Amino acid sequence: MKKDFSPFKNESDCIQIGELNIENRVDRISIFGSVDITLDKEGQEVAKELKAIIDSTLAEMEKVDLPDKIAVAPVEVVDNPFK
């Protein structure tokens, strides 16, 4: 991975790969957007980076006794103070 990403450890890590955003939370990982994995060396690196993020996420999940489902608090939207 280009950046150290420790799943479920904080509320601040964010990785962008192409137009794909991967955001860290203490109770979830949010993935949104899109990215092209092309059939070339660049696409291979993108695929490896995504795989590393998923692998590290699964490794963290396998370390704990997971509940069947958690209640995810809704995201609070606030006005932009810089407008």
Give a quick precis of the structure.
The protein has a domain of 47 residues.
The shape is flat
* Beta-strand share of residues: 15-25%
Mean pLDDT: 91
The percent of residues in helical segments reads 25-40%
Q: How many β-strand stretches? A: 3
Radius of gyration: 15 Å
> Which residue ranges are poorly predicted, with pLDDT under 50 across at least 5 consecutive positions?
none
The helix/strand order is: EEEH
Taking the sheet with the most strands, its summary is: 3 strands, antiparallel
- First CA to last CA: what distance? 35 Å
- Specify the structural class: alpha+beta
Cross-sheet strand order for the largest sheet = 1-2-3
Number of helices, counting only DSSP H or I runs of 4 residues or more: 1
Protein model, in words:
The chain is α+β, with helices and mostly antiparallel strands. It has a domain at 14-60. Helices cover 27% and strands 16% of the residues. It has one helix and three strands. A three-stranded antiparallel sheet has the order 1-2-3, with helices on one face. A hairpin with a 4-residue loop joins strand 2 (20-24) and strand 3. The termini are far apart. The mean pLDDT is 91.
